[in-house]
């Protein structure tokens, strides 16, 4: 069942959309503002986000930008503002679509179906992902480096696949901990440090080239083409 997060500070909107989406067979969660939504996203990434623009604490544009930094999750923006500049700003921030209030529920559901279908097609293409010197073959549960298959534990594979799908982006410690161990893993940063250390050893070809760089106090970044690894911890 596809999971959809509806974000709006108007309780009536979240209630109506939640009812319609559940009736259409989706699992729905709601948030009253962008900050609340981001907390929910960090705990569990939904299959799609439907968000209002004008909200307290973190608005829809800021939420869209935050999501787009870490995932390709479809984002549908809702707003009472029909100005072209507003639509352009939302799309430039990373939104996939824009719907002006008031709107018909049938149209909303049609757009949701379209974006989820498109995302599934994109995911299918990503099952065989070439990123720099790496190849991720998801159906075979295999990752190669320079044509050589890596011998990875299940957790090492999960971490490497996550980094490859977000190559050259900073993945924050908290994001990685939650993705790999769930919400309960957030307070165990040592698990991540150990796992990254193990993975770095398996990526080491003795040529001084590293692939997983530390971003101090923030997280890790995968460099798909490698970098001079001396001193990186």
What is the topology?
Layout: E1 3-7, H1 11-23, E2 27-31, H2 34-43, E3 48-52, H3 60-70, E4 75-79, H4 84-93, E5 97-100, H5 105-126, E6 128-131, E7 134-137, E8 142-145, E9 148-149, H6 154-165, E10 170-172, H7 173-181, H8 189-203, E11 209-215, E12 219-228
Parallel strand pairs: 1-2, 1-3, 3-4, 4-5
Antiparallel strand pairs: 6-7, 7-8, 8-9, 10-12, 11-12
Helix pairs in contact: 2-3, 6-8
Give an overview in words.
The chain is an alpha/beta fold and 233 residues long. The chain has 2 domains: 3-125, Rossmann fold (3-Layer(aba) Sandwich), CATH 3.40.50; 153-228, Arc Repressor Mutant, subunit A. Helix content is 44%, strand content 25%. The chain has 8 helices and 12 strands. It has helices at residues 11-23, 34-43, 60-70, 84-93, 105-126, 154-165, 173-181, 189-203, and strands at 3-7, 27-31, 48-52, 75-79, 97-100, 128-131, 134-137, 142-145, 148-149, 170-172, 209-215, 219-228. The strands form 3 sheets. The protein has a 5-stranded parallel beta sheet, sandwiched between helices. Strands 6-7-8-9 form a 4-stranded antiparallel beta sheet. It has a 3-stranded antiparallel beta sheet with strand order 10-12-11. A hairpin with a 4-residue loop joins strand 7 and strand 8 (142-145). Helix 2 runs parallel beside helix 3 (60-70) and helix 6 (154-165) packs across helix 8 (189-203). 25% of the residues are buried.
